[in-house]
Write a structure and sequence with these properties.
heterodimer; A: Ubiquitin-like (UB roll); DNA polymerase, domain 1; 6 helices; 34% helix; B: seven-stranded mixed sheet
C-alpha cells in the first residue's frame, strides 16, 4: 500500500511537435500520452475513434508519414516530427475524397464507428494500388473490425472509389 | 458479390425529381460519419467535465473485508472516491434489475463475478482516474466460485446470492411452455427419437464503441442531463427516476450517435449510475467510458444456454414432436432484459418453421459467478437459441434417418395456406411462404451440384487421407420480433408500445419524432422514407429526431428488431392522420366536399377534375394561414400515434453455408453463404441488405470464433479482442443474398423488421455445415465456436466444453 501511495503524481512531460493535417502543432503532454488521446483530447479531433486498446480493431487508424498506423499503440511522443493525417483531412477543396463518396454510395457504413479507420486504410491502399482486386481489399482492411456491415459493402465502397478515381481522377491527389 | 434477385425498378430513385417513399435511397446520416463528424459518447465534452473510472473485482467470488481508499483520495487530481458503503448511505448500492431481481451498483458485501464494480474514482482527467484505481486497497476473503452452470444446483454448491433472505441455492426460476403430455403421446408413437445436448455458449455483442455516459447534474435547478450509450433512452429515464427518486421531468437522457449496440446498450450498467452519483457529489459533469476489457467482462453477455433436445419422427421423416430441457446461466444477478411474462424470452418459438402437433420446453435459470445479462447480441429475446436448437435437431434427425436435410425440411415446412399459424407453444405466425424461400436458396446455391462436389471430395479424402472436408449446412428460421402487444409484454411494468409525433411546417418540410434509437440501422433515412411514402413529402424534406427524451415521445426503444414493426407502424399511422387532416384542409381550400377528393401520393384532387388539386405542402401553408377551417378542425398540420402492436411479426429466411475444413489443421473456411430473407416489403433495400450482411458475419463469428469462456477460478478468458475473436474481412465470404416478399397482414406497411434475422438464422447453418463435413468421422454434434482445436479434437472423438477452460487431457 505505502509503495503505491508514494507513486509520484507529477509525471514526466514531453513537448510534442508534429504536423497534423498539414498544420504544425506543439503541445506539452504527459510523456505516456498515446497518439490517439493526443489527437482526440489535446487537438480536439474526435473523428478518430478508440475501440480496443490492443491494436485489434483499427478504429484508431491514422496516417503517420502516409502509412496507416493504429494510434492506440503509439505514443504521441513517437509521432514527434512526423506528419499525421486524420479522417478530417480527407475532404479536399474539390469535395469529398472518392473513398468517402464510395462509402456513401455503396452503404459501406452503418453505425459509422469503424468508418474513419476504414477510410484511412482504403485511401492508403488506393494510393499504393489504384486498382485493387476484391482479395487485395479484403487483405488491406483485415486489421480493421466492423461489427455492422459484414465487410461486403466496405469492399464495394473501396472498389467504387477505385473506379471513380480512374474515371474522374477525383480528389485522390 | 452476387445478388440474385434483381432489384425491382422502384429501387432506383427517379433522377428527375426528389426522392419520395420507399426505395434505394442513400443514407442521410452518412455525410457526417464519413467526415469524422459523428458525435459519439466519448466525443461529448462539457466545460469543467471530470472523468470517472471503475475499480473492478479481480476475483469471481469473495467477501469484501476492507476497502482502503485513503491513498486514492490523497491523489492531487482526484475529486471523489465512491464505495459501496457511501452508496448505501444514499440508498443507491443496489438497484432493481430488468428482470425483477436486483443488481449491485457497487459491491458492499461480496463480489460475485470477476469485473464486478467495487469503487468509483472521479478525477480531473482520465489517466489520473485510472492511476488512482491502483491506489485503492481492497482486502478480499476468497470464496469458491460457481463456474459451471451444470453444477450450480448441486447440493453443497456455494450460494452466490446470500443477499437474498433465506436463499439456500443458486436457483432462479423454472419455466415451461407447451404440453408435456401431448408431446409424450407423440413420442410414444414415433419410429425415431433423436436426442442431443447442445450448447449455445456465452458470447458478447462487442460493439466497436464501448458503453459510457456523461452525467451533468445542475445543482441549481436540480435537472440531470445524462448522455448515455443507450438503445432505450425513455426506458432508462424512467428507471433512473424509480431508482434514484429523481423526478422524471428533471431527467433528460440523450443518446448521441451510437457506435453499434446489438443489445449491449439495452441494460443499465453501474457505470451510468456512478457517473450520476459522481456528478451529484462533485457538482461537475462526469464522464465514464469503459475500456474494452471492462466491456467484455462486465456488460451484457448473450446466450449461455445448455439445451437438451429430443425430436420424434416417423421413419419417413415426418416430425411429430420436440422436447427441450434448458439450463440457462444468467450470471450473478438476473438482469436479462426481456418481457416480464417471459423469463426465457421468446425461446418457446423453438418449434421453428415446421408443422407438427406438440412440443414442450422447460427452462431452469441459475446463478453463477459470472457477469449478469443474457439477452443481447441481436437475439430477438432468445429466438437465436430457439432457432439453433430446432435447426440442429432437424439436421440431427436427417443424419439419423439418412435423409437429405433439405428434403427433410421441405417435407415438414409449414405451408402458405396454414397462415395465420398457431404454434404448439402459443404463437400466431402472421404470414409466410416457407417452401418458396427454401427453394430459392437451394436454387441459388446450386444445391445438387454442391452435393455432387461433396461426394467427390469425400471419395478423394477416403482414398488419400488428406485434402479438404466439405460441408453443406442449411438453416430455416422463423423470427419473432416487434415486441409487442401491451397486454402481453412489458419490461419493468412499461408496456412495449412506442410513440411517434409528426409535424409538417408551414413550408411543407416535416419533422418526425421517435422513441426508438438507431445504432447504425439508418433510422434517419428509413423513417423519413416511411413518412415520405405515406405523405408524399420528399425524403430530403423530413427531419428525424430521436435519442433525446426532452424532444421525443415515450417508447421502449430499439432492440428485438422492433423499430420498424412498432415505431415504423406508429410513423405510418401518424403520417396517415396528417394526410387525413390535409384532406379536410384541401377540401376547404378548393371549396369541395372531402368525400369528393382522391389522394395520389402528395396531392389531393377533386375526382374527375384533376386540374383542381392541392399538394400536401400547400395544405401545410394553408393550415397555418388565415383560411377558415371547418368547425372542430384545428389549425396546423400535425399528428401523433402511440402504436400498440396487435401481434408480433414473423420474418423468416432460408440460409445455406458451404464450408471447407482443412483436414490437417481443423481450420474451417466458409466458402459461400447464401441467404434468402423475407421481411415483407423493403423500405430501403440497400439498408435491409446491409442489415443482413452484418448478421451473417455475426453468425460466422459465433459459429467459428467467438466465446466468453472461464477457467475454474472464474477468470474470464475472453477479456480482450486478442482472446475474444471477431470475424474480419478474411473470415467472411462474399454474401449471396436473395429475397421473397410476404407482407405482414397486421402491420400498416406490411413490413416485418430485419435487424436480427441474419444473426438469429446464420449460426446453425455454419455449424450444420461443419457437422456435415465431419459426418464421415461419426460426428453428430460440435460445440460452438468451431475453432481449429475444437474441430480437430471432435474429428478424433475428443470434444471439449467450449465454455470452460480445457481441464481433461
Amino acid at each position: 500500500m505505502t509503495d503505491l501511495a508514494e507513486t509520484p503524481v507529477s509525471l514526466p512531460t514531453t513537448e510534442v511537435s508534429l504536423t497534423i493535417n498539414g498544420e504544425a502543432v506543439t503541445r506539452t503532454v504527459e510523456s505516456r500520452t498515446l497518439l490517439i488521446h493526443f489527437i482526440r483530447d489535446h487537438l480536439d479531433l474526435t473523428g478518430t475513434h478508440w475501440g480496443c486498446d490492443t491494436s485489434n480493431c483499427g478504429a484508431c487508424v491514422v496516417w503517420v508519414d502516409k502509412k496507416p498506423v493504429k494510434s492506440c499503440t503509439m505514443l504521441a511522443a513517437m509521432a514527434g516530427g512526423h506528419e499525421v493525417r486524420t479522417v478530417e483531412d480527407l475532404e479536399g477543396a474539390d469535395g469529398l475524397d472518392p473513398v468517402q463518396e464510395g462509402f456513401m454510395q455503396c452503404h459501406g457504413l452503418q453505425c459509422g464507428f469503424c468508418t474513419p479507420g476504414m477510410l484511412m486504410v482504403g485511401r492508403a491502399l488506393l494510393d499504393e494500388n489504384p486498382n485493387p482486386s476484391e482479395d487485395e481489399i479484403r487483405e488491406a482492411i483485415s486489421g480493421n473490425l466492423c461489427r455492422c456491415t459484414g465487410y461486403e459493402n466496405i469492399i464495394r465502397s473501396v472498389r467504387w472509389a477505385a473506379e471513380a478515381g480512374t474515371s474522374e481522377n477525383g480528389a485522390s491527389q | 458479390m452476387t445478388t440474385v434477385e434483381e432489384s425491382p425498378a422502384t429501387d432506383q430513385p427517379d433522377p428527375e425529381g426528389p426522392e419520395v417513399g420507399f426505395g434505394r435511397t442513400l443514407r442521410k446520416e452518412d455525410i457526417r460519419f464519413v467526415r469524422g463528424k459523428g458525435n459519439y459518447l466519448d466525443d461529448v465534452r462539457i466545460p469543467g467535465m471530470l472523468h470517472g473510472a471503475v475499480l473492478r473485482s479481480p476475483i469471481a467470488h469473495g467477501r469484501i473485508v476492507n476497502i482502503d481508499t485513503s491513498a486514492a483520495e490523497a491523489h492531487p487530481k482526484v475529486k471523489a472516491v465512491i464505495t459501496g458503503a457511501i452508496l448505501e448511505t444514499l440508498n443507491l448500492a443496489w438497484a432493481p434489475s430488468l428482470s425483477h431481481d436486483v443488481i449491485a451498483i457497487l459491491a458492499t458485501d461480496k463480489v460475485r463475478y470477476q469485473g464486478q464494480e467495487v469503487a468509483f474514482v472521479v478525477a480531473e482527467d482520465h489517466y489520473s482516474a485510472r492511476d488512482a484505481l491502483e491506489l485503492i486497497d481492497v482486502e478480499y476473503e476468497i470464496l469458491d466460485p460457481v463456474v459451471d452452470a451444470r453444477k450450480a444446483l448441486e447440493p453443497g454448491a456455494p450460494v452466490i446470492r446470500t443477499d437474498i433472505e433465506d436463499k439456500a441455492d443458486n436457483h432462479i426460476f423454472d419455466w415451461e411452455s407447451g404440453d408435456a403430455d401431448a408431446t409424450q403421446a407423440q413420442f410414444d408413437k414415433a419410429d425415431v427419437v433423436v436426442t442431443e445436448d447442445l450448447l449455445y455458449p456465452r458470447v458478447h455483442p462487442a460493439p466497436l464503441e464501448t458503453c459510457g455516459s456523461v452525467a451533468d447534474m445542475d445543482p441549481v435547478d436540480g435537472k440531470l442531463t445524462l448522455w448515455c450509450t443507450t438503445q432505450a433512452p425513455h426506458a432508462h429515464r424512467t428507471v433512473y427516476a424509480l431508482v434514484a427518486g429523481l423526478p422524471e421531468h428533471k431527467i433528460r437522457v440523450i443518446s448521441p450517435d451510437i457506435g453499434g449496440g446489438f443489445g449491449n446498450k439495452v441494460g443499465i450498467y453501474p457505470g451510468y449510475v456512478l457517473s450520476v452519483v459522481g456528478s451529484i457529489i462533485t457538482k461537475k459533469p462526469v464522464k465514464w467510458m469503459e475500456n474494452r476489457e471492462e466491456n467484455l467482462i462486465s456488460t451484457s453477455f448473450a446466450r449461455d444456454y445448455h439445451m437438451h433436445g429430443e425430436i420424434a419422427a416417423t421413419s419417413e421423416g415426418k416430425i411429430l414432436g420436440v422436447k427441450v430441457d434448458v439450463l440457462a446461466d444468467h450470471g450473478a444477478f438476473n438482469n436479462t432484459a426481456q418481457p416480464t411474462k417471459f423469463p426465457a424470452g421468446f425461446f418457446h418459438v423453438f418449434t421453428g418453421s415446421y408443422d407438427y402437433p406438440a412440443a414442450h420446453c422447460k427452462v431452469t435459470g441459475v446463478y453463477t459467478n459470472k457477469a449478469p445479462g443474457g439477452v443481447a447480441y441481436a437475439c430477438s429475446f432468445r429466438v437465436t437459441e430457439a432457432v439453433y436448437l430446432i435447426e440442429r435437431m432437424v439436421d440431427r434427425l436427417a443424419q439419423q434417418l439418412g435423409m437429405d436435410p433439405a428434403e427433410l425440411r421441405m417435407k415438414n415446412l409449414l405451408q402458405p395456406e396454414q397462415f395465420p399459424y398457431h404454434s404448439p407453444t402459443g404463437w400466431e405466425y402472421d404470414s409466410g411462404n416457407y417452401p418458396a424461400a427454401l427453394q430459392m436458396a437451394l436454387d441459388m446455391a446450386g444445391y445438387d451440384e454442391l452435393r455432387r462436389e461433396q461426394a467427390e471430395k469425400r471419395a478423394a479424402y477416403e482414398a488419400t487421407g488428406s485434402g479438404d472436408l466439405m460441408g453443406i449446412g442449411i438453416s430455416f428460421f422463423t423470427e419473432t420480433v416487434g415486441a409487442g402487444p401491451r397486454k402481453h409484454m412489458d419490461i419493468l411494468g412499461l408496456g412495449m408500445a412506442d410513440g411517434c409525433e409528426l409535424r409538417v411546417h408551414p413550408t411543407g418540410k416535416a419533422v418526425v419524432r421517435l422513441s426508438v434509437q438507431t445504432q447504425g440501422q439508418g433510422h434517419e433515412t428509413t423513417f423519413a422514407q416511411i413518412v415520405s411514402e405515406v405523405t408524399g413529402i420528399p425524403t430530403a424534406d423530413i427531419e428525424v429526431v430521436h435519442g433525446d427524451t426532452d424532444n421525443t415521445p415515450f417508447g421502449l426503444g430499439t432492440y428485438g428488431s422492433r423499430s420498424t414493426p412498432v415505431s415504423g407502424a406508429a410513423a405510418a399511422i401518424a403520417s396517415r392522420r396528417v394526410v387525413d387532416k390535409a384532406k379536410i384542409i384541401a377540401a376547404t381550400m378548393m371549396e369541395a366536399n372531402p368525400d369528393d377528393l382522391e389522394w395520389e401520393q402528395g396531392t389531393w384532387s377533386v375526382k374527375g377534375s384533376p386540374d383542381r388539386s392541392v399538394t400536401i405542402q400547400e395544405t401545410a401553408m394553408a393550415a397555418h394561414g388565415p383560411l377558415e377551417l371547418p368547425e372542430g378542425v384545428e389549425g396546423q398540420l400535425d399528428a401523433s400515434c402511440v402504436y400498440d402492436p396487435p401481434n408480433l411479426t414473423y420474418p423468416f429466411g432460408a440460409y445455406i453455408c458451404v464450408a471447407d475444413i482443412d483436414s490437417g489443421t481443423g481450420h474451417v473456411k466458409v466458402r459461400r453463404f447464401i441467404a434468402v430473407d423475407d421481411c415483407g416489403p423493403r423500405i430501403n433495400p440497400m439498408i435491409v441488405e446491409g442489415q443482413v450482411h452484418g448478421g451473417l458475419a455475426d453468425g460466422v463469428g459465433m459459429a467459428l470464433m467467438e466465446v466468453i469462456a472461464f477457467d475454474e477460478g472464474g477468470n474470464c478468458l475472453g477479456a480482450s479482442f486478442m482472446d475474444y475473436l471477431l470475424p474480419t474481412s478474411m473470415e467472411c465470404p462474399s454474401w449471396e443474398t436473395g429475397e421473397t416478399v410476404t407482407p405482414s397482414p397486421h402491420h400498416p406497411l406490411g413490413v416485418k423488421g430485419v435487424g436480427e434475422s441474419a444473426t438469429v438464422g446464420s449460426p446453425p447453418a455454419v455449424v450444420n455445415a461443419v457437422v456435415d463435413a465431419l459426418a464421415p468421422f461419426g460426428v453428430t454434434d460440435i460445440d460452438m465456436p468451431c475453432t481449429p482445436a475444437q474441430v480437430w479434437r471432435t474429428m478424433q472423438g475428443r470434444r471439449f466444453r467450449s465454455d470452460l477452460a480445457i481441464t481433461d487431457d
